[in-house]
Amino acid sequence: MNNYEIMFIVKATMEADMIKKTVENYKSLIKTLKGKVVDFKEMGEKKLAYPIKKEINGYYYVMTVELAKENVSEFDRKIRLDENVLRHLIINLDEE
Known about the structure:
With 96 residues, the protein is of the alpha+beta class.
């Protein structure tokens, strides 16, 4: 199990319950992939530096997870397919 930091931005134009559902889906996906959410931070709504998919604001979330190396690509694949996620970034905290 490696430690990863995952940051993702969710569309701010969605309803609040849909935003929460999207976030909970990714938390549960980590558990489904036999990982563990160590820390979760909701950074709130922020103005984007430039428009992404015609959106100018987004909700930022950062979570630190323990996940097997082979399951990271599956998480990455699923988050890429979600149209509600504007951007995401996965950083391996163990590699330095």
